Each structure stands twice: as C-alpha cells, then as structure tokens.
C-alpha cells in the first residue's frame, strides 16, 4: 500500500515520471500486482473507469451498436491466418500450452485483441446482405506482455472496449471507422476535457493487419503525446483470412469489409497527465468519482447534520457528493482531496452555519469563495461546467503553446524536445526510424484538419507524402 503519510508528490518540473508514479499510488488510483507489469485498480481509479465506460457505452448504443462477449482464449492457429496480424503481435503474446495437468493439442493465446476470434464467429453469423451491417462491441480485458510497464499507460493486462463491425462495402466501413473516431474525439473533449488531434497513422504506425488506422493524440503536461483511442479500417484482410462472406442483393458472393476500434484504461493515464499539477490530480468533473466533497469543520452535531443534508440535496440534483467524516484535521482533508483532484470542495463550520454560508474551493481555482447556503446546491451544476470549461481551455492553451509548424531540421529538433512539431514528411518507414533515432520523436498522425500542403521531407528532402503535414512528438 502506498505511503500516504506525506501527501505531497515530486514536482512535475523536477521529475515528471516520478510525479506520475507517486500520484497514481498516493491518490489511491491503482496498486502494483504480484505479477510484474500487472496492476490492481483501486476503487477510486475504477470509478473513473466506470464513468468513462458509461459515457462511451451510451454513445455506442446511440449509434446502433450492441454489446457481446467473446472468449479470452484464442487458438494459436487463428492468429496465424492473418500474417501481418500475427507478426505484429508475436512479441507481446502470452501463450497457454498446458491445462488440466496435460499439454494442449494446440497452444492458446490469451486475448491480445479479438479480430481473429470475432472474425471466425462472423463467418458463421453472416451469410446475406440482410445481415449487414453487423455492429458489435465488447467490454473485456486483454493481455500484452510489456517489457517496460507503467501503471495505466502500459500494463500486461488492461481493460478496454473493442468494437468489431462488418459491412457490405468500403464506403460503409470507412464511414463507421470515422464515426467512431469522432465518438472518441467527442468523449475526450466533452467528458475528459482533453483537446485531442484526430488523424490517420502513417503505414509504419498502422495496426497490424489494417488498411488504415486512425487515432486521437493528446498532449501531456510534459509535452509528450499519448495515443488515447484508435479506429481501424481493416478492408477485406480479415474477411479473406476467415471467409467472412455474404451474398449481395444480386446473388453475388462477396467479402465483408470490417472495422475495429478501441479505448482502454490508458485514458485514465491521459487524464492524470493532461490535467494534474504539483498538488496532485485535477479531475474533469464528468469523470470525478466525487464531484463535490463537503468537509465539516469541528465536532459539531448541527454542522454534521447540515453537511449531510447538503450532500443529500446535491445528490438529488444529480451531483456526485461525499461528506468527509474522517477523524482527521481539516488541513489533512483539504490536502487529501486536492491530491485526489476533487473539482469542488465545500467547507462548513459553526460560524458558516450561523451566517447561512459555506466556503467553496475549486480545485483549479486560485482561492476560496464564501457562498450563501440558499441556492448553493442549485448552482453546483453550473460551477462544475465552469470547471470543465476551464480545464479544457487550460489544456488547449498548453498544447497550442507547445505545438508549431516547422520547416527546418533544427526547428524540428528544438520543438520535439518538449512539444509537438507539424512537419512535411516523405512517409517512408526508414526515414521515420532515422527521425526517432535522432530525436526520440515518432509520427503520431496526419491531422484530419490539416490544410493541403506539399514540399520536401523535414529530414531526407524527398518529396512529402499525404499532401499534408504530419504531427511528430515523443510519445508514451
């Protein structure tokens, strides 16, 4: 268990990595597991995941998707059917060779992703154009053996959702791919208060087996990028590998066009690093386990009762509220809830109660405000919306201050040292490798909103590809 005697964390500017690791443990988001690279998600961290899950799930269902569940164990032969897929995932696979005291006839892979097992299933479920589109999502855990794990960001086992859809043609499948990229962009912005850049991955960064991969990229407060959600157009690659065919309206047998898309508990890491400060977490209100914490001051039954009524009224108004009745000093409680990133704190003591007021402190604010108790609860939703807007504006300003269009190699090196660079690029994986070796930066995406532009590659002077600039950054 993390040592919480000292609630402070290493300042970001001193050691961002240490700040992150300490904060995850001290804010009681997660703990280390007995197996290296795995994590235990604690109730406070898991509640953030539940809230994110609910926001995503309602959007999936609103766009016609339904939930299902597929097996954790996948026959090794399934992965081998799609050559690029098995090659891409081989270094990360966990394989079961024995079970029930005997060696298995065929090794089983612990699910790294589900395109193969779902592809085989779809080949049995789809026979006619009337069966399309097939729109299914699953909430599951996956296992990818990480050599350099970090809580929430890269763990051997993590939680996610993965959507898998089948369509009659490329246009419909591509529309689905972009629709779900839009859902991820919306959730990041409107729920997590993170301004992301959506765009297409270069060939060297594509998902193994995909025709095209799209992602949303978020800037963390050290200037690095974090890929926070992906959406893949798989073409007919998996349909051909698993014989996912349908008879069209004219009786012709055709292969389906498929997609897959996912967002994981890595998004919690994004929230931590996009908003946190030297005091701890700064949670966006729509993902905060407690949006408001009421702290009674002193040991006064009337104050305790008033605090409980205040929290009950807040809950009735749709606000997630909590009363801190721990036997601890007010100062400890204030620091603890600042560390845990609660958007609003309400302090209520005997003098406040006598005056018919309370003290409100916003986590992102610069001070405290004395507010009349009458009307306080009614105003909480607007205050929480203001917290969200302030977080989003701060994150946007920070990103824009560290992102620049660059046209020379020297400018590129300077910018990616602690931020993002938009540069022309030839699109060759070998050139990407050179850029990464020289600077540590990789192509994050080709921004969807980038203007048409051509010229010479920032590194090798070959003609640029894509007709737009590519976003480069060091990344997690």
Structural overview:
The protein is of the alpha+beta class and 476 residues long. It has 3 domains: 16-275, Bira Bifunctional Protein, Domain 2 (BirA Bifunctional Protein, domain 2); 292-379, Rossmann fold (3-Layer(aba) Sandwich), CATH 3.40.50; 403-473, 2-Layer Sandwich (Translation Initiation Factor IF3). 34% of the residues lie in helices and 26% in strands. The protein is built from 14 helices and 23 strands. It has helices spanning 16-26, 43-62, 76-80, 83-89, 115-125, 170-190, 237-242, 266-275, 301-316, 330-339, 350-355, 380-401, 409-416, 429-439, and strands at 30-32, 39-41, 66-67, 73-75, 95-99, 102-110, 134-143, 157-167, 197-200, 212-219, 225-233, 245-247, 253-255, 257-264, 292-296, 321-323, 344-348, 357-362, 368-372, 403-405, 420-423, 442-447, 470-473. The strands form 5 sheets. Strands 3-7-8-14-11-10-9-22-23-21-20 form an 11-stranded mixed β-sheet, with helices on both faces. Strands 16-15-17-18-19 form a 5-stranded mixed β-sheet, with helices on both faces. The chain is globular and about 80 Å long.
């Amino acid at each position: 268990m993390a040592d919480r005697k000292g609630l402070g964390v290493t300042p970001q500017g001193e050691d961002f990595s240490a700040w992150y690791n300490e904060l995850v443990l001290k804010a009681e988001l997660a703990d280390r597991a007995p197996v290296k690279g795995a994590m235990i998600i604690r109730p406070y961290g898991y509640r953030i995941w539940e809230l994110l899950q609910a926001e995503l799930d309602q959007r999936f269902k609103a766009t016609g998707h339904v939930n299902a569940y597929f097996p954790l164990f996948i026959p090794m032969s399934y992965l081998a059917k799609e050559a690029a897929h098995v090659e891409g995932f081989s270094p990360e696979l966990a394989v079961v060779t024995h079970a029930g005291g005997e060696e298995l006839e065929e090794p089983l892979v612990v699910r790294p992703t589900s395109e193969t097992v779902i592809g085989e299933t779809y080949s049995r479920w789809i026979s006619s154009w009337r069966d399309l589109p097939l729109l299914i999502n699953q909430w599951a855990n996956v296992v990818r053996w990480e050599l350099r794990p970090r809580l929430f960001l890269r763990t051997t086992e993590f939680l996610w959702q993965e959507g898998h859809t089948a369509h009659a043609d490329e246009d419909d499948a591509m529309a689905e791919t972009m629709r779900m990229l839009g859902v991820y962009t919306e959730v990041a912005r409107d729920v997590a208060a993170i301004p992301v850049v959506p765009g297409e991955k270069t060939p060297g960064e594509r998902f193994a087996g995909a025709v095209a991969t799209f992602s949303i990229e978020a800037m963390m407060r050290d200037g690095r990028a974090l890929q926070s959600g992906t959406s893949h157009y798989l073409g007919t690659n998996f349909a051909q590998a698993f014989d996912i065919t349908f008879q069209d309206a004219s009786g012709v047998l055709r292969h389906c066009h498929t997609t897959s898309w996912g967002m994981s508990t890595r998004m919690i890491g994004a929230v931590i690093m996009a908003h946190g400060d030297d005091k701890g977490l700064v949670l966006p209100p729509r993902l905060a386990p407690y949006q408001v914490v009421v702290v009674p001051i002193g040991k006064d039954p009337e104050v305790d009762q008033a605090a409980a009524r205040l929290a009950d009224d807040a809950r009735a108004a749709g606000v997630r509220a909590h009363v801190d009745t721990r036997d601890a000093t007010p100062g400890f409680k204030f620091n603890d809830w600042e560390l845990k990133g609660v958007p609003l704190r309400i302090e209520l003591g005997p003098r406040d109660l006598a005056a018919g007021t309370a003290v409100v402190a916003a986590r992102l604010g610069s001070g405290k405000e004395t507010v009349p108790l009458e009307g306080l609860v009614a105003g909480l939703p607007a205050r929480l919306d203001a917290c969200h807007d302030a977080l989003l504006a701060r994150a946007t300003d920070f990103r824009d201050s560290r992102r620049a269009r660059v046209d020379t190699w020297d400018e590129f090196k300077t910018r990616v040292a602690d931020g993002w660079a938009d540069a022309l690029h030839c699109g060759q994986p070998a050139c990407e490798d050179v850029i990464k070796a020289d600077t540590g930066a990789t192509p994050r995406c080709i921004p969807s909103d980038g203007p048409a532009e051509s010229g010479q590659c920032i590194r090798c002077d070959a003609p640029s590809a894509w007709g737009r600039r590519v976003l480069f950054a060091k990344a997690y």
